[in-house]
Design brief:
This protein is an alpha/beta fold. It has helices at 10-30, 33-42, 52-59, 76-84, 97-101, 109-116, 123-138, 143-158, 173-176, 179-186, 197-201, 220-225, 227-237; strands at residues 66-70, 87-91, 161-163, 168-170, 192-194, 214-217.
């Protein structure tokens, strides 16, 4: 395989360094312990944008997943196929200095790398992600079914919260890369529900602003074990 190298400006490297220094300050207090372990296992560089090949080598020591660098996010059907094939698309560009200063939540390389790759070291989480992709392949031509599965995906993979004996922690990729929404999602007045597939399918996810409700798991096995229920709910609704 030919090594793919991406060039970044000094300013872009500074943006990564600044974002990383910000995020690493609040994650130890808010992120789930297994996510923190994943961050340590992969060992993200603090002072420069990581190399995709190096990241994949580290991920491969824990799972058979890999990240695939792409300029832009793929369409739903291609994305589903990638999940089923244990490949996660990762954008190659990073947000602007202005977006960083305004603390905008941007789906860029920082979100994709920091938000998604630590979880790829957790076997049951990986099995859940693969299972969602394979299930979606069965309904590839059914827009209604895909819409319901996207809700399950977003409320778990992107905005998921996990309960511990002491408190609530985050594991969703969007929350891991967003200090502002993390603080909001964990605050006492924000509605949070036990992991409930039916309720998740009935709850639209909201783009460009904080969610109105969040869903809480007790462990990552709960995600994988929910796949049969996801399939059953889907059949009942389609």
């Amino acid at each position: 395989m030919v090594k793919q190298t991406y060039s970044y400006t000094d300013q872009e490297q500074i943006i990564w360094t600044t974002l990383y220094s910000r995020i690493i300050q609040f994650l130890p207090e808010t992120a789930d312990e297994m996510v923190l372990q994943g961050i340590k296992r992969i060992g993200f560089p603090a002072d420069h944008i990581p190399d995709f090949e190096d990241l994949n080598k580290k991920i491969k020591t824990f799972s058979d997943w890999e990240i695939v660098p792409l300029e832009n996010m793929v369409e739903d059907k291609e994305f589903i196929g990638m999940l089923a094939s244990k490949k996660y698309p990762c954008r190659t560009w990073i947000r602007s200095a202005e977006q960083m200063e305004h603390e905008e939540d941007v789906y860029d390389i920082f979100h994709d790398v920091i938000g998604h790759t630590p979880l790829l070291t957790i076997p049951s989480y990986c099995e859940y992600l693969t299972g969602l992709g394979k299930l979606a392949l069965e309904y590839l031509e059914n827009d209604s079914a895909i819409a319901l599965l996207k809700r399950v995906y977003w409320h778990s993979i992107q905005f998921g919260i996990k309960a511990t004996d002491q408190n609530l922690t985050i594991y969703g990729a969007h929350l891991l890369s967003s200090g502002s929404e993390t603080a909001y999602s964990l605050s006492a007045g924000v509605p949070k529900y036990d992991f409930n597939v039916a309720k998740m399918m009935e709850t639209p996810y909201i783009k460009n602003r904080f969610q109105e409700k969040y869903f809480v798991i007790n462990n990552y096995e709960e995600l994988f074990n929910s796949l049969d229920l996801v399939k059953k709910e889907l059949k009942n609704r389609i």
